[in-house]
Queue: 2 jobs
Job 1
Amino acid sequence: MLEFRVSVQMINKLKNPLTEDYKELKKIILSNKIAWHYNLTTTIDLNPDPKKDMEFFSHVLLDRPDPAKDGIAVPYVSSAYFEKCYFILKEILDFNNIHFDVVYRMNLNLTLHSSIKESTPHLDLPLTHKVIIIYLSSFEEGKTIVLDKNNKKMYSEAKEDDIIMFDGDLAHYQQSPKIDDKRVVMVANFI
């Protein structure tokens, strides 16, 4: 049985236990130990116009199932850091009394300032799920924007160590961080 926090808001702010394991993992992620991979747009699968979508860097921890791409209909571990990140995700969800059954995708994203002020609205997966975003770096601007079914916008404040969660059937996107800032987040999709 799924247990999710009920809220009248689209974006739920979760508590971060700020454990020593979390702090150690964050130090690794923000160091030069993580290999970052360049992406021309935030929504490669939608084939957006690169002149209208933001570039970013990613480190895939658990790759989304994509039978069309590789014939594999299950998520698969893509990083040696997956286990540490999964443990932190579980620790955070347990701390907030949120039960989950399956994690479908986990990613680290790094976005630098862009002349394009907002990325393309998108869904992470074509199935019912929750999205959790953990803000790992200090930056200004760079808010997450979630759209309700009527395209009403809800903004997150996006402060370092904050955690937000929302329904995965709601389109979301991000603003560009301020010049010289790095927006580093961990994103997970789960049911």
Job 2
Amino acid sequence: MLAALALLLATGAAAQFGRSGNSSIAAHAARPDSFDGRFHYCRGVYRMNPSGDGGSWLTDYPLADIDLSVRLAELTKMRVGFDPGGNPQHLIVQLTGDELFQCPFIMMQEVGRLLFNDEDATRLRAYLLKGGFLWVDDFWGSYAWDIWATQIRKVFPAADYPIVDLPAEHPIFHTMFELRGIPQIPGIGYWRGSGGGTSERGADSAQVHARGVSDRTGRLMVFMTHNTDVSDSWEREGEDPRYFYRFSVEGYQVAMNVLVYVMTH
């Protein structure tokens, strides 16, 4: 209860922090000297699948990256990377670059549009087995799921690394906040346009799935939040108070749990 109250108070000042600085892709491309021992939100770049469904790896950039970094610094004791001007040093990471292995966590959006080639799959597999963590979010419906499942199977064959629905007792739901699962969070545009709806693909996306792939010790390596757009709750926190109180507080609870899990497992 106290943790939830702290979250509400911290995020109650929605969008009151500064959003200055250069948010261009070039300015945030990860380089060998981008890492200094502090936490950096790492956004993974992927190839576009011509048969895919959804947006691109740039969805919700840069505000999701900025807002989550700020809230992580406010709500935990993690040392988050900021530049001298007080702007979060969020990073854009190529799967084939050595910088990937400096990120304890990478985020990918709209992975119904994703395509891995052999090099991507090999590098991502090595990263995850060495202790890395991938969170994929904001892909809706059965077609987008099938695209994603086909691509992640290039990384981890089903026979050795099954995709499972995470049970309610999984630690990721209990690291900081006690979660009963993953909420369905729509993009703010859909929410407004539908008059408050949450399932962006109707009956085909009515149920939220929290799924994962674990290593042989049981450590979760890939976390999948399907039929929900958790990251929009960070990006859009300052646009509409109704959306903020309905979705952003829960969205940050999910994020805090995930990142505390990442940094402690």
